[in-house]
Amino acid sequence: MLVIADNLNVRNADYMEAVQKKDRKAIETIAKNLVAKGADLINVQVSLDGSIDEDLLPLAAEAVQQGSGLPLCLDSRNVRALSKAVPICKEHPIINYLSADEKNADELLSLVSTTKSDLILRALKGTVPFTLEAKLLIIEDLLEHANAADIPNERLFADPSVVHVSKGMGQEHLLNAHESIVVLHEMVDPPINTVVWLSNVTTGLPKKLKSTVASSYLSYLAGAGLHAAFIDVTDADVMKAVYLIKTFRDEITFAPAELA
């Protein structure tokens, strides 16, 4: 299970203050803490709409890279910003993400192909698709475009787009995301990786319920073969679930003290 820390986002006030002030040392310190919490990669976001990404994404990526030493996931659809940030990365980054809504898909795919980056393919077209079939159709189409751009499946991550469990038909959405992972493992050859944004599951829930719901859903998806997840690595209960998943998969050696 690959743990992608999702903590460096626009909702993190301390981080965004450091980004706006271009305080590299503060960003480095925040990144170091994420390493200590168990991150395998760190997602770097500086805006939701990409409007400031060209200026601030390279700066943030460089500071996070310096502070953490970990591979990065660059959270932007601004290709100019990405083209500046990717060379900063010491290892090939993950680009987050390509959906059916992207107007510059060819430009983004060209960048990913040229730089040998990894890419997340998100099941999204206007809104998150409701049915299993709709999710798979979008991912299949994006996969074909990525392959045509000479991006192999081993460098691709399919995201079935989970939604929060308390939203309308949320439970059906979450079930379909689980089934998407199962089908992708069974049907796609060569194999493609799978990833979810775990915090989306708990949006709107009371704070006291978030950890329980998130850790349980992560374990549910792990049973379907999930490869990676965007996770709040400061959530101790969720990270305990990650530890056990890695243990059961024989990715690490079990030590009871780690759960104390």
Structure description:
The protein has a single domain, classed as Dihydropteroate synthase-like (TIM Barrel). Helices cover 46% and strands 15% of the residues. The protein contains nine helices and eight strands. It has helices at residues 13-20, 24-37, 53-68, 79-85, 105-115, 132-148, 170-187, 207-222, 236-248, and strands at 2-8, 41-44, 72-75, 94-98, 118-122, 156-159, 193-197, 228-231. It has an eight-stranded parallel beta barrel, surrounded by five helices. Strand 4, helix 5 (105-115) and strand 5 (118-122) form a beta-alpha-beta unit. The longest helix has 18 residues, at 170-187.
Write the layout of secondary structure elements.
Elements lengths: L1 E7 L4 H8 L3 H14 L3 E4 L8 H16 L3 E4 L3 H7 L8 E5 L6 H11 L2 E5 L9 H17 L7 E4 L10 H18 L5 E5 L9 H16 L5 E4 L4 H13 L12
Parallel strand pairs: 1-2, 1-8, 2-3, 3-4, 4-5, 5-6, 6-7, 7-8
Helix pairs in contact: 2-3, 3-4, 8-9
